[in-house]
Amino acid sequence: MTDKQQGSSTTIVHPAYESPDGFSAFPTAIHHASTVLFKDVEAMRARSWLNKSTYTYGLHGTPTSFQLEGEIAQIEGGNHCVLAPSGLAAISLVNMAFLEAGDDVLVPDNAYGPNKEQGAWLQRSFGISVRFYDPMIGSGIADLILPNTKLIWTEAPGSVSMEVADVPAICAAAHSKGVLVALDNTWSAGLAFKPFEHGVDISMQALTKYQSGGSDVLMGAVITKDVELNNRLLMAHMRLGLGVGMDDVYLVLRGLQSMKLRFDAHDAAARKLATWLKSRPEIAKVLHPAWEDCPGHEVWKRDFTGAGGLFSVLFDEKYSEAQTDQFVNQLKLFKIGFSWGGSHSLCVPYRIETMRQSWSDKGILVRFNIGLEDVEDLIADIEQSLNSL
């Protein structure tokens, strides 16, 4: 720049002020950026989508998002993390990174509904074979693996029906035939189940849940230990143009600091409320992995260290859908809405028989997310609604 006085527009865009060095604070700084600046042309030309020690473009991350990725990877016990705009976007990222036309993928019958729907779409529109399997199959999954099977999805437990799959047995069978295993680990928040200690190759999280804790952010993450798997994810991430907003990243970073305390509080409250529900004559079965009659309980006891706030119940079959809908509508503190992990309690009825290829239990299924309210107040709310039946 010459000594000529700058125009006012230039001065606004290029201010002379620079903040002093030496500032330190607990929160991670929020670095907003679409354009990333390079110190010279050589640095620009040396950039790489696969090198997380450099920055290329705002879509692929700033120091703020790199911080969150590092923390999520550490919680999960992984080495690498890639962020996505939602949990479903993270599932899509995994499928796009590791599947192509002619491949086969196995998905558990109790998987998150949109994951199953995406599987049907992949089969219909992209020539990828998608097969659904019994989540309790364990090592028997070896019999389902075909020469073109490239990926096996797992979810433990199923986020509606709550069966706990034997993930280590599935991983052992898959790896013996060179097949990758991806786990939707959202239910445990990476706190109650350590995927890589049990053989999982790729762990997916919806950071929308416990990590945020505020029911106000959508975000997903894919975590790996292996650098080659991470590189494939990064290339798919770049090609799909998946990005996250740094203000949202900051909110998740802030939520992480209290996540373990909140998760334990959700867990304790849910167990207390589930214990009370087991005593109610209206309830035929409580589907909570910590209960012995929940499918996969022994696996949960062996592999998990906690349970969080999400569980389901089956009403006695004498109650109609209209009556259980009335029960949900009569609740005051419990609100009707999907998701979990926030401070507010939620309740949703499901037509489970329409969601599953095989479902033998009788009675209407209702899922509860236990928030951070006083448990006695939640029990009183459920009691008054049960009495209305």
UniProtKB/TrEMBL annotation:
Reaction catalysed by this enzyme: L,L-cystathionine + H2O = L-homocysteine + pyruvate + NH4(+)
Pfam families listed in its UniProt record: Cys_Met_Meta_PP (PF01053)
Transmembrane residue ranges: none
Signal peptide stretch: none
Listed GO MF terms: lyase activity
Sections of the chain in a coiled coil: none
Classification via InterPro entries: Cys/Met-Metab_PyrdxlP-dep_enz, Cys_b_lyase_bac, PyrdxlP-dep_Trfase, PyrdxlP-dep_Trfase_major, PyrdxlP-dep_Trfase_small
Keywords: Lyase, Pyridoxal phosphate
The protein's Enzyme Commission number: 4.4.1.8
Cofactor requirement: pyridoxal 5'-phosphate
Similarity section: Belongs to the trans-sulfuration enzymes family.
Full protein name: Cystathionine beta-lyase
Organism of provenance: Undibacterium amnicola
